[in-house]
Amino acid sequence: MTTVRRDRTGRRAAPAAAAAAGALLLGVLLPLGAQGTAQAAAAPNGGDVIANLFQWNWNSVAAECTNVLGPKGYGAVQVAPPQESISVPGHPWWEVYQPVSYALNSRMGTDAQFRAMVTACHEAGVKVYADAVINHMAGSNQSATTGYGGSAFSPAAYSYAAVPYAKSDFHGSPPCPNADLGITDWNNATQVQSCQLLNLEDLDTGSDSVRGKIAGYLNTLLGAGVDGFRVDAAKHVAQADMGNIVSRLNDTKWGGRPYVYQEVIPGGSGQLAPAAFEGNGSVLEFTYAAKLGEQFNGNIANLRTFGQSWGFEPSDKSAVMVTNHDLERDRTTLTYNDGAKYELAHIFELAWGYGTPQVYAGFRFNNKADSPPADGNGFVTDVNCANNTWTCTDRDRGIANMVGWHNATRGETVANWWDNGNNAIAFSRGSKGWVAVNNSGSAVTRSFGTGLAAGTYCDVIHGDLSGTACTGPTVAVDGSGRATVTVNPGDAVALYAATTGTAGPSPSPSPSASPSTSASPSPSASPSTSVSPSPSASPSSGTVTELFNETKTTVTGQNVYLVGSIPQLGDWAPAAAVPLSPAGYPVWSGSVQLPANTAFEYKYIVKDAAGNVTWESGANHTANTGANGGTLNDSWGSVGGQVTVNFAETKTTVYGQNVYLVGSIAQLGSWNAGAALPLSSASYPVWKLALNLPANTAFEYKYIVKDAAGNVTWESGANRTGSTGASGGMTLSDTWK
């Protein structure tokens, strides 16, 4: 097998063929905001699902534990490497994987903020697992001598006074057989574990002094309340050395040994095989992620046998995932760009019950080395899940509610399997929970054997449990355990908790197309005033008024509603859809207060007097509220009379710069640079974006460049102009001026 690993400088490493390719205490979800008494003792909630909040700062992690992870039953949160790291121009994400000291002052926050975050997560019942970078220090190819905490160091001299480490604490040649200290044979254990991983200065973990300092750092984290470690580059540390370090670790504050899961990229045999590392803890299951992505891009009926026979490590030694920060940048797995497939893969992962599952939530990026949203000094700013700069997968209603489903069904075997031989499956976990996943392009309606007791159940993919009631659709299970359910394309239905209340029709519909990421707004940055477009519009914050007009002929008893991808539009739940007024019939209208400068998707639905729901056909409508809101005029099933416009801008940039599009209409951000749309650099130096715009609409636009510090440079000259026409598509090919 050939795999590729991403190094800590953003470059691709040698191919891997040469290198290598819990149940909640009560068993029921507590409603949001109702967990205070149950968790006042700050005891672990018993769950095992890990929310991997990649490069979220400490204040944001603390808030997420309190408001989302704890209430939803996540067992743990994985946080970024807490140690002080190098700071280089542009502040790429990989900075945190180049330590310069073991002080807990990093680009995620201060020592005090880190400790406060751990306390907040513990009070929510959530364990904290820290990403531990212990194989190496900074890159020998780095000239920077500045760390985020102010510690002095010199990569050229292999000197890290704050630890302290000197050149004698690092592997040299020998034992590395190569004079340049690089790895040339990725199947040679001596090279892999004694030479430098792409210039990263390799610590001599065979030295008792070095092992003691590493263990001391990890014990400092344990003393702060950390409960376990994701060990970065564990494949490059000899197993005996790692075992010695682990043996020196203290117990956690909640009692017991820290949970250790190791990054061991597949490839190689013997001492380099993932199985060889099981003695020191669990192993990150890269093969699981790859195989899961293959099935969701192929035929998920194959998942019936998904398990160790597929080449995975044993379930009790596997930390499984849909993707992580390296994999999403290499696009070797499903990512947030895959829309519904990405969500469905997480739902399956949580339902299937193999290994310790992770839910990955990172940030959107155009270039592989892009910094997370940060200030001009590289310190990561607070996470804002509303503006689409972060991928807050852990909050997705279906995924977050599946954590409770997972907790309630742990220990139960898979039963009642059904598939259609293609891309729709269903199964139960014993008699505790049932799930159906439809990865196809057509709805599936049938009578399923669920294995559940008779009763009415909340579909937790589309509704939340609130006491004994459900805020979304419900499903009736008869005395023989069967239920008639419609599972829409690119959607799922999941049942596990009986409810006596209803809040919507059953079966549960969903949007017919997965949310698009192509029109997501860019990371917010302060607009430049030195060169502004004409006309100039000042950005706004808060909410704006969006008017929706939908032309739809109905019959007696039918009414038209609006539903969409953001909470103000119901998060795709028909029960929470916004009713429209027929005052101008056949035009149905309604005004909604929406967040400013926010991209969203939406559709119209019709409900009749019996509660039956009919979804508008075709792709989802897309829009952007911009700074001032606007009016959206649509016709049933016509995708709003929209036209696909392909923007192509030729622009040579320097490291850290990206190109964005902004313009005069709401879909183009209403001249607000903070709501500008990112273009893809895949065809560099041509930057591209495909966007649906209203038909028969004239607009003006410009391109802007943003750097990692948030500085904005506007294209010079007059505004560009375009007009969409009545239908079809168009391409606008431009060159920076």
Q: Strands, helices and their partners?
A:
Layout (H helix, E strand, L loop, with lengths): L3 E3 L5 E4 L34 E4 L4 H15 L3 E4 L31 H13 L3 E6 L3 E4 L13 E2 L4 E2 L28 H6 L5 E3 L5 H16 L4 E4 L7 H9 L11 E4 L19 E3 L1 H11 L21 E3 L4 H6 L9 H13 L3 E6 L35 H13 L4 E6 L4 E6 L3 E6 L5 E6 L5 E4 L6 E2 L2 E2 L3 E4 L4 E6 L3 E5 L47 E9 L7 E6 L13 E2 L1 E4 L2 E9 L3 E9 L5 E3 L5 E4 L5 E6 L6 E9 L7 E6 L13 E2 L1 E4 L2 E9 L3 E9 L5 E3 L5 E4 L5 E7 L2
Parallel strand pairs: 3-4, 3-14, 4-5, 5-10, 10-11, 11-12, 12-13, 13-14, 25-33, 34-42
Antiparallel strand pairs: 1-2, 6-9, 7-8, 15-16, 16-17, 17-24, 18-23, 19-22, 20-21, 25-29, 26-27, 26-30, 28-29, 30-31, 30-32, 34-38, 35-36, 35-39, 37-38, 39-40, 39-41
Helix pairs in contact: 1-2, 4-5, 8-9
What does this structure look like?
The chain has about 725 residues and is an alpha+beta fold. The chain folds into three domains: about 5-410, TIM Barrel (Alpha-Beta Barrel); about 415-495, Sandwich (Immunoglobulin-like); about 545-735, Immunoglobulins (Immunoglobulin-like). Helix content is about 15%, strand content about 30%. The strands form twelve sheets. Strands 3-4-5-10-11-12-13-14 form an eight-stranded parallel beta barrel, surrounded by five helices. Strands 26, 27, 30, 31 and 32 form a five-stranded antiparallel β-sheet that branches. Strands 35, 36, 39, 40 and 41 form a five-stranded antiparallel β-sheet that branches. β10 (about 230), α5 and β11 form a beta-alpha-beta unit. α8 (about 340-350) packs parallel to α9 (about 395-410). The longest helix has 16 residues, at about 210-225. Mean pLDDT is about 85; it is low at about 1-40 and about 500-540.
